[in-house]
Amino acid sequence: xxxxxxxxxxxxxxxxxxxxxxxxxxxxxxxxxxxxxxxxxxxxxxxxxxxxxxxxxxxxxxxxxxxxxxxxxxxxxxxxxxxxxxxxxxxxxxxxxxxxxxxxxxxxxxxxxxxxxxxxxxxxxxxxxxxxxxxxxxxxxxxxxxxxxxxxxxxxxxxxxxxxxxxxxxxxxxxxxxxxxxxxxxxxxxxxxxxxxxxxxxxxxxxxxxxxxxxxxxxxxxxxxxxxxxxxxxxxxxx
Length: 239
Prior knowledge:
This protein is α/β, with parallel strands linked by helices. The protein is built from ten helices and eight strands. The strands form two sheets. A five-stranded parallel β-sheet has the order 2-3-4-5-6. It is globular and about 55 Å long.
């Protein structure tokens, strides 16, 4: 499946049928999701970092790109790569390195390793540079971190940022951790596909779609569930 096919998966969907993109942290997990019939996957940076022995945001870029490449090689469905805030790489190098992995998309955050929001116009300029370098070869999911960073009116701030990012060429916007009751307003005021996060405590996937989500990703949530299961089995094995 090409990047065009991946992009097409985000359009023409029924409200109760958002695109579900599980987040594999390694090749074995990617195969499980692909074999289950999911049409595409989206790596979570926190999950991949944990699988490599690092805290979220601490994995070196070389190791992250190598992990994404292994995931891409393991499956025959398109993979989008979470590249955090871009590892300080200029747009040309970032695009080249992502394309080298075989990934068809990226997820790019608008706050850096210091957990501080980047100026929205500066981030829009960076997205425009990435779009210019990638052309149509990458699907760009622009993460909006206003709900993570203590902004006084995170919904309004998310809408402002999302509009700038879409105008700069982002294919989809991702107001991460937006509460379910904010999704209808975000859907009304943002043009184009809208990514929501699925996790315990949120509505199920069809409900997220009816609230306005075009696609649903899970961050490191699926890894956390897997680790919980391993802890349970570890307790059983110890007797």
